[in-house]
Design goal:
11 strands, 10 helices, binds NADPH dihydro-nicotinamide-adenine-dinucleotide phosphate, Rossmann fold, six-stranded parallel beta sheet, alpha/beta, 2 domains
Length: 300
């Protein structure tokens, strides 16, 4: 069997299109423009690239993009004061603090200082609790993107056996909560899990969110299963020239694609969905803040 490729790039473009349509309607019918504030502390090159992409895509869907670039030496008090002012700003509907923060800043404290209704990353403890108890929340972008692709591929996920490999707060745990919310039978695996291959072999849905190059081989995959590869790993690519690199996932793509029914590639799978879902969350936050109906198909 050769798997269907789930094209995250195309799917993300579709999500951005829906967001842009809804944003135009908000502007025309209500005079509203959603605003996303992104706060970057320090000069981490990868974070700078992410923030630039977020700003560009925010503007492309017609939203206001507000960027705050702070020095790596910014004090906790100054960062918290900025978050307070963004919380109070009615033109800002979403706030994202780019992680990781420099070591002298307390990430939990900073994230929990964001107004929960503006926490478009879904990392605030209140949103985590709401997601875990099935209440309306802001949902972390990467797992939300995975859920959207799974729903589009399967329709109903009810009763399916899902394995999430990885238990981080930003991917593994919220992913498991979302799958549970859609009535999957969920197993969360991690570095201490015994006999991971056997656990993965019984899954209809495999979500790999580990950060280990191609650790899931094709012979772990149940025939016809759906494989969502969240991992992003950079490896040497001498075939592209000296010193060149390329990205691969946590799943061995070629062998998994032989057995799976559907699979997301890396790059071009989950990655593009993450920013698309950030835009969707900002739109949702704006609608909620103004007691307007939420966009359909863009929330959990
Ligand atoms: P973390 O490092 O926070 O978590 C990794 C998880 O994998 C941990 O729970 C760890 O277990 C588990 N793990 C490590 N080794 C093994 C193993 N041998 N067997 C089973 N489980 C193992 O990573 P993140 O969740 O932040 O990210 C995971 C991957 O997803 C990374 O490659 C990251 O780059 C990528 N990513 C991609 C995004 C996208 O937009 N596509 C967004 C976010 C992340 P334990 O808890 O026991 O240590």
């Amino acid at each position: 069997m050769t798997a269907q490729i789930i094209d995250g790039k195309a799917f993300a473009a579709e999500v951005r299109g829906k967001v842009a349509t809804h944003v135009a309607r908000l502007r025309d019918e209500h005079g509203l423009t959603p605003g996303l504030a992104v706060v970057l502390v320090g000069e981490d090159p990868a974070s700078q690239v992410y923030v630039r992409n977020k700003g560009k895509q925010t503007a492309e869907v017609g939203m206001n993009s507000i960027e705050h670039k702070l020095s790596a030496k910014t004090s906790q008090a100054d960062l918290l004061a900025l978050i307070d002012s963004l919380n109070a700003d009615p033109g800002v509907h979403g706030i994202l603090v780019q992680l990781p923060l420099p070591g002298h800043l307390d990430e939990d404290l900073v994230i929990n200082a964001i107004a929960p209704e503006k926490d478009v990353d879904g990392f605030h403890i209140l949103n985590v609790g709401r997601l875990g108890t099935g209440q309306k929340s802001m949902v972390p972008c990467t797992p939300l993107g995975c859920l959207m692709m799974l729903r589009a591929h399967h329709g109903s996920l009810s009763g399916l056996d899902a394995v999430v490999i990885g238990r981080s707060n930003i991917v593994g745990k919220p992913m498991a909560q979302l799958l549970l919310g859609d009535s999957c039978t969920v197993t969360i695996a991690h570095s201490r899990t015994k006999d991971l291959p056997q656990i993965v072999r019984r899954a209809d849905i495999v979500i790999a969110a580990v950060g280990r190059t191609e650790m899931v081989p094709g012979d772990w995959i149940k025939p016809g299963a759906t494989v969502i590869d969240v991992g992003i790993n950079r490896i040497d690519a001498p075939e592209k020239g000296e010193g060149k690199t390329r990205l691969v996932g946590d799943c061995h793509f070629d062998s998994c694609a032989e057995t799976a029914g559907a699979i997301t590639p890396v790059p071009g799978g989950v990655g593009p969905m993450t920013i698309a879902c950030l835009l969707a969350n900002t739109l949702t936050a704006c609608c909620r803040a103004n007691s307007l109906p939420e966009p359909e198909g863009l929330t959990a």
